[in-house]
Design a protein that fits this description.
Elements (H helix, E strand, L loop, with lengths): L2 H22 L2 E6 L2 E6 L4 E6 L8 H36 L5
Antiparallel strand pairs: 1-2, 2-3
Helix pairs in contact: 1-2
Length: 99
């Protein structure tokens, strides 16, 4: 590998690290049926809020809402990561050695 390729790869690695640092400051909130979960980028739950007390009296509804809210968070986090990493991956693809 020549010096320029190594330099490009180092820049891509630095860019990816910068994006990781940006993502670490993101808290994603997802709400379903008055159940709100806030989770950070390291998948640490920051807060759980039940905004309607009637949810506490219905175990099945609470379970369903919590499951759906967590799945909603997961989907949002994947979309955010894909958007942030899209240009880095594109740059890496352009710099692949071709035979």
């Amino acid at each position: 590998m020549d010096y320029n390729k190594a330099k490009e790869l180092l820049k891509l690695q630095q860019d990816a690290q910068k994006i990781q640092n940006e993502l670490s400051n993101i808290h994603i909130e997802a709400e379903v049926d008055w159940f709100v979960v806030t989770i950070d980028w390291q998948m640490k739950i920051i807060a759980v809020t039940i905004e309607n007390d009637s949810l506490l009296n219905d175990k099945k509804r609470l379970e369903k809402a919590s499951l759906e809210a967590i799945n909603k968070w997961l989907k949002k986090s994947q979309e955010i990561a894909a958007e942030k990493m899209k240009w880095v991956m594109w740059s890496m693809w352009l710099n692949l050695p071709w035979m």
